[in-house]
Design goal:
The complex is a heterodimer of chains A (654) and B (74). Chain A has 29 helices and 10 strands. With 654 residues, chain A is α/β, with parallel strands linked by helices. Chain A has a 7-stranded mixed β-sheet, with helices on both faces. Chain A starts with a strand and ends in a 5-residue tail after the last helix. Chain B is mainly beta. Chain B has 2 helices and 6 strands. A 6-stranded antiparallel β-sheet of chain B has the order 1-6-2-3-4-5. Chain B is globular, with a radius of gyration of 11 Å. The relative contact order of chain B is 0.35. Chain A binds chain B through residues 57-58, 60, 62-63, 66, 89, 91-92, 95-96, 205, 236-237, 240-241, 244, 265, 269, 273-276, 278-279, 363, 367-368, 370-372, 374, 380, 473-479, and chain B through 18, 21-30, 32-35, 40-48, 50, 54-61, 64.
Chain lengths: 654, 74
């Protein structure tokens, strides 16, 4: 790696993303860290490669995000690490900074959110702070772009310095003495060890990864044995205390709070986290986000459809009804259309979520809902994404990235498809309406309930049998409430939307083109002679036990692409228009005119894979083929079993 | 000495002991022997708890709080 390579690090909610965007011009490359689903963002400042490390409080090897950050610093040896610090809370934020200094990597400290610090009448003496930390300290207000130019300048200067002297920060004598002794043993053990002091400190803390690493080397056991005579039982706590008392000394000298200021966050929390109103307020806010997302998205989705039809008409007019124009219209335009149709939903949902996240409420939502969700095998943060699933599972699955722990996130993703999305509703209305008329409402409601109950059961099953290990802990900072800025929220939204088009888009597009081919060939054949019909006939026997006919099965195949097209495809297959009054009853005829079979068909529609976009989203968010396949397979098996159960209980077989 | 989970709302404790396999992470959040911690409120359903420590708000499930011993300060 001859390229210049630096890293950004910091506690969560310190404005790290804003600084990353300001430095890289928002042109981030987003991928996952190898082998895990934690997002890795990189970008460029001139020739310098900047890696955005996960938000962390410490560098302990037991937390995934911490370990990723730590390994990056140890293994990729960035020229400089930029530690972004919340200027309003140096006491806790500097702890991570001291851990970085211990590793021996050059650090630049950025004191962000200076505007809030000055509102809170906090006065910081940067020069003294820089002396204490033996590193540059740059004050910034990133959301107003203040201090960014200065930061760029300092980065450029620091990157040129070849042999930066890195004096360690010293701990009390008693500890230092033993650190030095172990450090000497480490030096003797491996002459070219880059950071013997850090290894010595980690040995005193009984750090699992460092110990394991040494143990696996020849003579490693010997080193561990001779080091252990200098290690005391509670060194871990002593070191942590030493860091904090050092920080306390720094803060006492460098930070002056000039006046007591009214704490608006405390005031707002008394309201938002109130014992009696906390939960109702949570539901009102969730309902608001939901309403906002889907009421604004609906006209936009219609617009996408209108554009699709308009383009289709132009092509048909220009080229006539040829195979090529059919490919363009039904294959390409519909293919792209199915990707774009979700964009309004995704963009608006992320607008809502980023707003909640940036304002500080999202953490509170997790706080309010955690106990309930924990009992259900999930996490406080799972609730929001489950609720969003009633609108559209695609953005709902994408919203799970606010859940830090991988176990919790995967379970939340896996159960989301059971939340009945908006696109399934037209199918319920069409078939339900044809059978139950005005009584269809309670039938439809029962489907939603089945989805919720199964989501909970499946979460519990996953927790019991797959993620058996220890539950991830709930250690959550409730940061100050802030007003989000339009620019940052929009940048955030755009990044997510673009990622969706790139990653999930491919899967959707390919599937649609395949469907077009099946539907169109052999050329000139009636729909009932098309390959698609053949495919329907081929798969129909699987559904014999459920009494679904060929037409019903083809409906399910279309529904696999997107539930939006099910109703239209029934129209096509049964040779009537989509809006035909008798369409519903024709389908019911196809289901043997039996309310029980029709209901079990609806249960099947509720539970099997919602659409290819969901598969794309699951793949993108889990980064794992295994989980993507599991989600499709379990959905199918569950749908089948439940549909069968409905008919069994309904007495179809007796 | 009481457990952190037994603190009453508004009460301030001084941390004495942490016996948790998460102690490194808790240390990083400021939970260190000798540091003051105040219970601000409980979530509407009673768990998790919200504390003030080192001038910021931290929420923890009760389960974790059972691993932390504090001395109530007058």
């Amino acid at each position: 790696m001859s390229k210049q390579n630096i890293a950004l690090i910091g506690n969560p909610n310190v404005g790290k993303t804003v600084i990353f965007n300001a430095l890289t011009g928002s042109k981030a490359h987003v991928a996952n860290w190898p082998g895990v689903t934690v997002e890795k963002k990189t970008g460029k400042l001139g020739d310098i490669l900047i890696t955005d490390l996960p938000g962390t409080y410490s560098l302990t090897p037991t937390a995934l995000d911490d370990l990723i950050a730590r390994n990056f610093i140890l293994e990729e040896s960035p020229k400089v690490v930029i530690d972004i610090v919340d200027a309003t809370n140096l006491e806790r934020n500097l702890y991570l900074g001291l851990l970085l200094k211990e590793i021996g990597v050059p650090v630049i400290f950025v004191l962000n959110m200076m505007d809030i610090a000055s509102q809170k009448k906090i006065d910081i003496d940067y020069k003294k702070l820089a002396e204490f930390l033996q590193s540059p300290v740059i004050p910034t207000t990133a959301i107003k772009n203040e201090g960014i130019e200065e930061l760029k300048k300092i980065i450029a200067e620091n990157i040129k310095n070849e042999s930066e002297q890195n004096d360690p920060i010293l701990y009390p004598e008693e500890l230092e003495e033993r650190i030095t002794r172990i450090q000497n043993l480490v030096k003797g053990f491996s002459k070219n060890s880059k950071n013997p002091r850090w290894i010595a400190i980690k040995l005193m803390e009984l750090d699992e990864k460092v110990t394991e690493n040494i143990k696996n080397q020849p003579d490693g056991e010997n080193l561990l044995n001779s080091a252990s005579q200098f290690v005391k039982e509670d060194d871990r706590i002593s070191l942590a205390s030493a860091r904090y008392s050092y920080i306390k000394d720094i803060v006492n000298v460098c930070v002056k709070k000039t006046a007591k200021v009214f704490d608006s966050s405390e005031f707002l929390d008394n309201f938002f986290l109130n014992k009696y109103f906390g939960i109702p307020i949570f539901f009102v806010i969730m309902w608001g986000i939901f309403e906002f997302t889907f009421s604004v998205a609906t006209p936009l989705m219609t617009l996408v459809e209108v554009i699709q039809e308009w383009l289709g008409a132009i092509i048909i007019n220009g080229l006539g009804e040829t195979l090529f124009s059919s490919f363009l219209v039904d294959g390409l335009i519909n293919g792209f259309g199915s990707i774009f149709i979700f964009l309004p939903n995704i963009f608006l949902m992320f607008l809502g979520i980023s707003f909640l996240e940036d304002s500080g409420y999202l953490a509170r939502a997790a706080f309010v809902m955690d106990r309930l969700m924990y009992k259900l095998g999930l996490h406080g943060r799972s609730f929001v994404s489950m609720l969003l699933g009633f609108g559209c599972n695609v953005p709902a699955i994408m919203s799970t990235r606010t859940i830090e722990s991988e176990d919790d996130r995967i379970i939340t993703i896996m159960v989301n498809q059971n939340m009945s999305c908006g696109a399934r509703l037209p199918v319920y209305i069409l078939i339900g309406g044809a059978i139950w008329g005005s009584g269809a409402g309670s039938i439809i409601f029962s489907l939603y309930i089945i989805g919720i109950v199964l989501a909970i059961l499946i979460a519990l099953i996953f927790r019991k049998f797959i993620f058996k290990g220890k539950r991830s802990p709930f250690i959550l900072e409730l940061g100050d409430y802030r007003s989000p800025t339009i620019k940052n929220t929009l940048v955030h939204m755009w990044e997510r939307g673009r990622e969706f088009i790139k990653k999930a888009g491919t899967i959707i597009f390919i599937t649609i083109v395949i469907m077009w081919i099946l539907q169109t060939f052999p050329l000139g054949a009636d729909i009932n002679d098309s390959y698609l019909y053949k495919v329907g006939e081929f798969f129909q026997p699987i559904f014999n036990p459920l009494n679904f006919g060929v037409i019903a099965v083809i409906g399910l195949i279309f529904g696999f692409i997107a539930k939006e097209v099910v109703v239209a495809s029934f129209g096509l297959l049964l040779g009537v228009g989509e809006g035909a009054a008798n369409l519903g009853s024709l389908i019911v005829q196809n289901l043997g005119n039996s309310p029980i079979i029709a209901y079990s068909y609806l249960v099947f529609v509720l539970l099997y894979t919602p659409c290819v976009a969901v598969i794309g989203a699951v793949y993108k968010e889990t980064g794992s083929k295994k989980w993507t396949i599991i989600s499709v397979v379990y959905a199918f098996v569950l749908a089948y079993l439940m549909a069968f159960l409905v008919q069994l209980i309904g007495g179809v077989y007796f | 000495m009481v457990l952190l989970s037994d603190l009453k709302i508004g009460e301030v404790g001084i941390i004495k002991n942490i016996n948790s396999d998460l102690s490194s992470r808790l240390n990083a959040m400021g939970l260190i022997p000798g540091v003051e911690i105040k219970l601000l409120r409980k979530a509407p359903i009673g768990d998790p708890l919200e504390f003030e420590i080192l001038h910021y708000s931290l929420s923890l499930r009760k389960e974790i709080c059972k691993d932390v011993e504090v001395e109530i300060s007058e």
